[in-house]
Amino acid sequence: MKKIAPITVLSVLTTVIFSSQAQAATFTEMGDAGETLSTAQVIPSKETMLQSISGTLSGDADLFKIFLNGDPFSATTVGGADFPTQLSLFDSEGMGVYFNERTSSSVDQSTLPANNPFTPTQSGIYYLAISVLDLDPINEAGDDIFPDLADFSVDVPLDTILTGVFEPTAAGAMSPLSGFDGAILDEGGSYTIALTGATGVAAEGQSVPEPASALGLLAIGALGLVSLQKNNKSKKIC
Ligand SMILES: [Ca+2]
Ligand SMILES: [Ca+2]
Question: Which of these, 62, 83, 222, 233, could form a disulfide with 13 (CB 3.0-4.6 Å)?
Fold first, then answer.
């Protein structure tokens, strides 16, 4: 039987992986994204790596339904807005995950960082919200989900509060997002949220498209061959 060189196997495998991998894309808000789970704008296609979301705020909040694929998640409006923003993330049930108002004392755009203790590590559906200062996520009873000024003792420096990355610990933390409330200190404008670790979501009732079956079989075959090579050569293939 003809032997297949390991390099050939690897190049076939690489081609198959890349052909089935997500394409990178920017999503632009269509009309105005809502502020509740049921009116959030659903960003389509789990096959599409989301590099950024662009939209417009006018004294309100925009909520987007996205999928976190397990790669390190992050979101930032630094360099993507010329007005103060707030970013918050919620899980598939609308429960708060984490929140940020100011990236630093001198930067009033927001960052939900990767490698933070509150950064989600579980893949799945999430909701990302951007809101103008000082519209905050609230639950059905109207309570804040994330801590606000009033939730801190007077000896906590203001800068620490404004630049903090917070998990949900306020009075409304134990129930899901219902909307946004607060004083509108800035009407907002156009924004771009840069993202890592996120894709669109699969359409309702549809399974995630699989690569063509022939490619799938090829991939399985190639994987099998690579694992055989692995047995012979020990690691590292990639
Ligand atoms: Ca909008
Ligand atoms: Ca909106």
Answer: 222
